[in-house]
Amino acid sequence: MTAIDLRPVRVSVSPARRLSQLMGGLALYGTSMAMMTRAGLGLSPWDVLHEGLAARTGLSFGTVVAIASVGVLALWIPLRQRPGLGTVMNVLVISVTVDLVRAVLPDQHALGWQIALLLGGVVLNAVATAVYVGARLGPGPRDGLMTGLAARNTWSVRTVRTCIELTVLAAGWFLGGTVGAGTVLYALAIGPLTQALLPHVTWRESR
Fold it and tell me: Going by C-beta distance under 8 Å and a sequence separation of 6 or more, which residues neighbour residue 185?
């Protein structure tokens, strides 16, 4: 399989197409997060942490996402990572969208609706990830932390990601975040789904 080039490209190249793709992907990502939180069957590791912090602080879920993102960006400084436009928009768009969708989407208590929201949320999250990453306008805060740590050490990206996600999952569970079947499903499905979708949505420079 041909490797997919995901290196950031300056925003002045094909801006209308790529900015639209970025914004759409980020909005879908925030929507997928809201769907999983309302399903109540378990969240992604980072969202377990976000939910736990929201419960302890009384802040909205989206506000916690934004604050946590800024905190993660601060960890980029010693790693000499440089944010792109996509990095900044990631913080703003996702945090606003997740709160807006949660405001109109109630918690679900019927198992059928919970499963539907969970499955839809996981699939939509993979689509959203492929779409916004494929715009090639800079990584999200958490992805940049992962690649930055891997670049500064001899660890693989997979090892770094596993360590980070286990750490935030444990912290989120301790704070009261929801860990369940959805957490396991997300961990197993998100990588393969995103990888399968990336070739279809990644922007490529015309030759």
Answer: 42, 118, 119, 122
Q: What's the CA dihedral at 108, 114, 120, 122 to 10 degrees? A: 110
Interval 162-192: pLDDT, tens: 899 999 999 999 999 999 999 999 999 998 9
- CA separation, residue 153 to residues 61, 77, 147, 162 (Å): 33, 16, 10, 15
Spatial contact of 166 and 45, defined as CB atoms under 8 Å apart? yes
Distances (CA, A) of 59 to 64, 89, 118: 6, 21, 23
CA proximity to 134, closest of 1, 14, 46: 14
What is the reported pTM? 0.93
State the Cα–Cα distance between residues 58 and 43, nearest whole angstrom. Answer: 19
Contact 168, 142 (CB under 8 A): no
